[in-house]
Amino acid sequence: MSSSEVDAVVQASFAVLDTLTRSAAEHDLSLTQLRLLGILRDRTPTMAAIADHLQLDRSSVSGLVDRAERRGYVARRASPSDARVTTVELTEAGRELAEELTSTIGAGVEALLDRLEPADRRRVVEIARSATA
Question: DSSP readout, 34-50?
């Protein structure tokens, strides 16, 4: 891969990262807090699963969840199958915020993709899906 190809991919990543950063900042969230809300949109993972997904140690996740809990965005629950395991879920306020962020981020990414021809846009989405599969 040439350095210009690497640079193009990095610049595209920066453009998406800027959209995420601005969306998070509008709600006084860090990127990691934004990612936590994204993880919890459609699942109720354990603390360990969150740590694995975010590639953080468990104590960092505990602090992350503590802060989100204080803001009223998440709640911890004992797992119904194992009381020693704690799961995390969005509260109603957290769900509303996650929906708002999804809309805002979607509009920002769509604005980036609108610069492309329809065929190129479809190809970028296919590449993104295959890169994260």
Answer: HHHHHHHTS---BHHHH
Rounded Cα–Cα distance for residues 123 and 65 (Å): 37
What DSSP element (H or E) covers 54?
helix 47-54
- Is residue 124 within 8 A of residue 110, CB to CB? The reply is no
User: Are 28 and 73 in contact, with CB atoms under 8 Å apart?
Assistant: no
Burial 43-73 (b: 16+ CB within 10 A, else e): eebebebbbeeeebeeeebbebbebbeebeb
Residues whose CB is less than 8 angstroms from the CB of residue 100 and which lie 6 or more positions away in sequence, other chains included: 27
Q: What is the pLDDT of residues 22-68, one digit of tens each?
A: 999 999 999 999 999 999 999 999 999 999 999 999 999 999 999 99
Count CA atoms within 13 Å of residue 39 on its CB side: 25
CA dihedral 82, 84, 87, 88 (to 10 degrees): 160
